[in-house]
Amino acid sequence: MNQDGSGVDLDKSLGYLLKEASSALRAAMEEVLRPLGMTVTHYSCLELLAQRPGLSNSELARGAFVTRQSMNVLLQALERDGSVTRPAAAPVGKALPARLTPRGRRSLEKASAAVRSVEVRMLAGLSGAEQESALRILRSMIHSLRDGGDGSHDGDDGGADGGGTGSTGA
């Protein structure tokens, strides 16, 4: 809390703790991905393409929480190293749908194992029921913020809004 008594008590601020957890998760993920020559954004891109082949640059950027420009630079690098392929011309509109190559799948396999180890470590102190509750609560928070939540819960667990990329939202 500020010296004058106003402001937010950071020790009790859920938003601050979520940001701190996100920062710690990202640092731990970067640590295990670095030896594989990857960043969290690189991993997120590969994971998104494995789960949703054919995503455009814009869709990948949204899913990895980066700008379109940053994603375009990454996709060009992934194309050069043979991890991703995109058509020379857009089949429809302007979007160039990206797909993983066999090399990209092999890279993703190693990265996914590394990221899973971080998530296991992060959740080690929680029971299965607590992990399920945490997922439900976080999805509800995301749903409330994205939909301008009025405080009511319509029964939707926010699954469609939940990210779908495992731990990549850090």
Automatic annotation (TrEMBL):
Pfam families: MarR_2. Residues 160-170 have a biased composition (Gly residues). InterPro entries: HTH_MarR-typ, MarR/SlyA-like, WH-like_DNA-bd_sf, WH_DNA-bd_sf. Residues 146-170 are annotated as: Disordered. Residues 146-156 have a biased composition (Basic and acidic residues). SMART domains: HTH_MARR. Residues 11-143 form the HTH marR-type domain. PROSITE patterns: HTH_MARR_2. It comes from the Bacteria. PANTHER family: HTH-TYPE TRANSCRIPTIONAL REPRESSOR YETL, TRANSCRIPTIONAL REGULATOR, MARR FAMILY. This is MarR family transcriptional regulator.
